[in-house]
Amino acid sequence: MKTFKIYQVDTFTKERFSGNSAGVVVNADGLSDTQMQQIARELNNSETAFIFSPDDNDSDGLIRYFTPTSEVPICGHATIAAMYAKAMEHNLDSCILRFKTKVGTLPFEIVKEDEDYQVIMTQGKFELSPAFDSTTTQQILAALGLDHSDTDERCPVQIASTGHSKVMVGIKSRQKLNALNPNYSTLIALSKQLNCNGYFVFTFESDDEDILTHGRMFAPAIGINEDPVTGNANGPLGGYLIQNKIAGFQQNLFEFNGKQGEKLNRAGVINVSVRIENDLPVLIKIKGNATVVFKTEIEI
């Protein structure tokens, strides 16, 4: 029997019971794939992160991520949660940790201030697929409950990724965004066809000058009908906005705040920064707050 330490962390917020929750097992050495899947299913967060000791001298450890139904390669909010929990568990000072993930070894920055922490996650390589043809676009819009007239004409419907891809769908109205009621079974079928499990619908309609976008993210194919606040959607959105020349930037840097989770009463804010070279995104980081909801132990 071994005692495993589990944190429940709300991310992209400083208020408990808001933002996006993630489980974190801070000492996962010895857990099997089956046990990790069982823990993730039991905690029933959109993702649970498992932190392992390093297996070489080139990293500070390894992280794996599980939804209640399957393993995923990377997860933004669960990374923020994992680094926050690790910082709390070990009372870390400000530092940069390099962790192996399924999308490569990535640097995660822990910033200590006033006995609390923020986490900055460097995401994987940005990739943007060609825009979908009109037939596929119409299928996606219909499954989400949208008409072509709802879309923002500046925003092509296409897949963007920093390691865990999302279909980007820009629309005009925040009211329409919050009224969406997708057909989840159709989205699941489309996910198999498109080889992409997430659909991020966003709008620039905002009544807060500090918030550029409001969004909602649906991923029923991996057991998450709607995710409250999604790092692997808002991060790629930054690259998407730059590569499609939708957003301006200064001194090779584009930075914005995206808000998500209002419909679920779990609102949170993600800060996204995009470094740009030759008018193309080359490095994407997300930054967020977090707070521990509870800490517990389990013997296996």
Secondary-structure topology with pairs:
Layout: E1 3-11, E2 20-25, H1 33-43, E3 47-52, E4 61-66, E5 71-72, H2 76-90, E6 95-101, E7 104-113, E8 116-122, E9 127-128, H3 134-144, E10 158-161, E11 166-171, H4 174-179, H5 184-194, E12 198-203, E13 213-219, E14 224-227, H6 231-243, E15 253-260, E16 268-277, E17 280-288, E18 290-299
Parallel strand pairs: 2-3, 4-6, 11-12, 13-15
Antiparallel strand pairs: 1-2, 1-18, 3-4, 4-5, 6-7, 7-8, 8-17, 9-10, 10-11, 12-13, 13-14, 15-16, 16-17
Helix pairs in contact: 3-5
Overview of the structural elements:
Keywords: Isomerase. Belongs to the PhzF family. GO terms for molecular function: isomerase activity. By secondary structure, the chain is an alpha+beta fold. It has two domains: 3-122 and 289-299, Diaminopimelate Epimerase, Chain A, domain 1, CATH 3.10.310.10; 127-285, Diaminopimelate Epimerase, Chain A, domain 1 (Roll). It has six helices and 18 strands. The protein has helices at residues 33-43, 76-90, 134-144, 174-179, 184-194, 231-243, and strands at residues 3-11, 20-25, 47-52, 61-66, 71-72, 95-101, 104-113, 116-122, 127-128, 158-161, 166-171, 198-203, 213-219, 224-227, 253-260, 268-277, 280-288, 290-299. It has an 18-stranded mixed sheet that branches. It is globular, with a radius of gyration of 18 Å.
